[in-house]
Specification:
The protein is α/β, with parallel strands linked by helices. Helix content is about 30%, strand content about 25%. The protein contains 19 helices and 37 strands. The chain has a ten-stranded parallel beta sheet with strand order 12-11-13-16-19-22-25-28-31-35. Strands 15-18-21-24-27-30-33-37-34 form a nine-stranded mixed beta sheet. It has an eight-stranded parallel beta sheet with strand order 14-17-20-23-26-29-32-36, with no helix packed on it. A hairpin with a 4-residue loop joins strand 6 and strand 7. Helix 9 runs antiparallel to helix 10. The protein is elongated and about 85 Å long. The N terminus is likely disordered.
């Protein structure tokens, strides 16, 4: 295939290979392919042989670098003639002492790019959702042995050894016969030979191909069959959705729209790149959507199209409600599966699962001062005693404890305690949870008091306390999935801190409050500060720079959201890749009315904007604010630009949104705007400086 893409014919490629032709080994596929390689004919490989090599390339990845390949090699992964037998590993079964079942091929460990290439180039290509089954059957016809191979029929209840007599690719099933004497493993039940024969008779000896695991064999004859069944099994378990085939907009590339984002999400979850709360919400949403689709399908199948009975009318109304609910679930799933929107819109909950329970006041009424230091000089101790400890220990009900690391100190805190961290670099391996109203302060300059987290985790510092204060500390983040600081609920007052991010910056959840004064935040691969609906955020005198976006405000995520309340004064927001401040909101109501025809705008779209997202377009390019200037912005009276949208009913808005997404689910767009400063979410916005932000000072992202 790749030879043809470069304009080379198979014969030309063969001549180019020269003496390397002797190293080619063709897998024995004579049971379903008539492949012949005539080494003496200069024209070399027939078209069928070329296709077989292409299939081998998709199903096998060369684990060891082929040093003999030239730079202009076609990329086809030929097997070396010295390497005979299977290229796959053996999966040893742990069925217990009495288990007599043979081992199977190990295929579940495939890498992302291996599955990606198999689905894109060989199994699905550019098919539409309605063509998935036909493309899959065509793929299996080329690689699966038609008969005479052993497999384990694996279900939730039993594993039993069977022999495949025939395959029905149209229905994705195999005709099998029981291998005698009976060899099986059961889970919670007893199976006899007669019971298994009765079960096979009831199914007409046909079982789903997805439930078959090919028995391991060293010859290599069944490698392709084992891998093909693995691709089929993985696809229908993790990629395919019951409602995909019913999408009313069937004219799109199914791989690009659905397969690739779902495959990436699967591996992101597998490699701990998605917060646990987000994973839990996605799985719950997927289950709810499946249940809703099943209810809708049952109700729809029971309706009579030409009936005017009252019962059918009631069912029709109920069906419309289920359809509306189903479209809402599908829209939310699409948001989760899109890597851009996944973190732009985020998730709301599971805070109860992630938050440590508040300890409250001590029963004795004693307040504790926790001093964190590995070691200190006598001068430091004397200074600490005179400057902080004596003023704090003026009453008799105060005690002092010493700790070697901040995590142990915080874990011992009760409401009203104070944690004083002496200068030093403290490496922590777990998240810091702040469930109580405490004070966490560094004794010195922020660059002298450093808390660094290197291990993976959902967040670095997570606060749910009613009134938490932090000051004079530098936090360095590594591998925290969700953010360097997450204010889930309660209030956090942060002053004179340095936040060196690696993934996400500060997150202010719904109903939480953050006051951040004189802090320096940089390095976030997402937004420096993410502000959720219903939160209160005060940013005064901070530096926010070298992030993906400076401040991201999530507005109107659904009709029940309350607008955030934001104060921005005297901040310096500069050198961010995207916008200095960006507002995220759904593309409904009044926004839909003002969207211009984007067909002409794409022609003049800068390359940088095209790579920001495949579907990003500057809707009002003339209003882009120069990002190299300083801006002193005064508040003005805010007007609600969504009056037209508010007139519409909630159900109408949902219907309009779901219909708009179902027609073109990829219509996400951003625009640079200056009148964002007049938005009513800003309580005060003045004295801020914006410099060298890549896409402008203010922008709006419509999804």
């Amino acid at each position: 295939m790749e030879q043809e893409a470069r304009g080379e014919t198979p014969s030309a490629a063969t001549s180019k290979a020269g003496n390397e032709m002797t190293d080619i080994a063709v897998v024995d596929l004579e049971s379903y392919f008539n492949v012949e390689l005539d080494m003496e004919i200069n024209n070399g490989i027939s078209e069928v042989g070329h296709n077989v090599s292409g299939l081998n390339q998709a199903l096998f990845q060369n684990e060891e670098g082929d040093e003999d390949e030239s730079d202009d090699d076609s990329g086809t992964d030929h097997f070396n003639s010295e390497k005979s037998g299977t290229q796959l590993q053996r999966f040893e079964r742990l069925g217990g002492v009495n288990s007599s079942l043979p081992d199977t091929f190990q295929t579940s460990h495939l890498l992302f790019y291996e599955r990606f290439k198999a689905y894109q180039d060989y199994m699905l290509g550019d098919c539409k959702p309605s063509e998935v089954k036909a493309f899959t059957a065509d793929y299996l016809e080329k690689v699966v042995e038609p008969c005479d191979w052993l497999a384990l029929w694996a279900t939730d209840v039993f594993d039993v050894l069977v022999e495949v007599c025939d395959v029905d690719l149209k229905d994705l099933k195999a005709c099998v016969s029981l291998v005698l004497p009976l060899q099986c493993d059961t889970r919670g039940c007893e199976l006899t030979e007669e019971a298994m024969k009765s079960l096979l008779d009831a199914t007409r000896h046909k079982v789903p191909l997805q439930e078959l695991q090919v028995v391991y064999e060293q010859s290599g004859d069944f490698d392709q069959t084992a891998l093909a069944l693995e691709h089929l099994r993985f696809f229908y378990k993790h990629i395919w959705r019951q409602w995909d085939e019913e999408d009313e907009d069937d004219d799109f590339d199914y791989f690009v729209r659905c397969v690739e984002p779902r495959l990436r999400l699967y591996y992101d979850i597998l490699e701990d790149r998605v917060p646990a709360g987000l994973v839990a919400e996605y799985q719950s949403l997927l289950e709810n959507c499946s249940q809703c689709f099943q209810l809708f399908s049952v109700l729809r199948s029971g309706l009579c199209s030409d009936s005017d009975s009252e019962l059918d009318n009631v069912s029709m109304v109920e069906g419309l409600k289920l359809y509306d609910q189903l479209e809402t679930f599908k829209r939310k799933l699409h948001i989760f599966e899109n890597p851009l929107l996944r973190y732009v819109l985020g998730y709301r909950g599971n805070a109860r699962q992630q938050c440590v329970q508040s300890r409250g006041l001590r029963a004795s009424g004693v307040k504790m001062i926790h001093v964190v230091t590995a070691s200190c000089s006598s001068i430091q101790l004397q200074s600490l005693l005179s400057d902080r400890l004596l003023p704090l220990c003026s009453s008799e009900d105060t005690e002092i404890q010493f700790h070697r690391d901040p995590v142990s100190a915080v874990e011992m805190c009760h409401q009203g305690d104070v944690v004083i961290v002496l200068p030093g670099i403290y490496n922590v391996s777990s998240s810091i949870f702040l469930p109580d109203s405490i004070t966490l302060e560094g004794f010195g300059l922020p660059d002298e008091v450093v808390i660094e987290k290197k291990n993976k985790g959902d967040s670095f510092v997570e606060s749910t306390g009613a009134n938490v204060s932090m000051s004079n500390i530098k936090f360095i983040q590594h591998d925290a999935i969700e953010g360097i600081l997450c204010v889930r609920q309660g209030t956090v007052n942060m002053e004179n801190c340095v936040l060196q991010c690696e993934t996400t910056g500060v997150i202010v959840r719904t109903s939480a409050r953050l006051t951040m004064n004189m802090c320096d935040l940089y390095g976030s691969k997402g937004a420096g500060v993410e502000i959720y609906p219903g939160s209160v955020c005060s940013l005064i005198g901070n530096g926010i720079h070298h992030c993906k976006d400076g401040i991201l405000i999530k507005d109107f995520a659904d009709e029940l959201d309350v607008m955030p309340s934001i104060t921005m004064e005297n901040n310096v927001i500069h050198n961010n890749e995207g916008y200095g401040v960006i507002l995220v909101k759904p593309n409904i109501g009044a926004q839909q009315g003002v969207l211009p025809d984007r067909s002409d705008e794409h022609a003049g779209l800068p390359s940088a904007d095209k790579q920001q997202g495949a579907f990003t377009a500057p809707l009002i390019s003339s209003t882009t604010t120069p990002s190299s200037r300083s801006a002193d912005i005064q508040p003005e009276s805010a007007e609600n630009s969504n009056t037209g949208a508010d007139v519409a009913s909630t159900s109408g808005r949902k219907w309009q949104f779901s219909r708009q997404l179902s027609r073109n689910k990829e219509t996400f767009c951003s625009r640079a705007v200056q009148d964002l400063v007049d938005h009513q979410i800003f309580v005060s916005i003045q004295g801020n400086q914006f410099r060298r932000n890549g896409m402008g000072d203010f922008g709006t992202f419509f999804y």
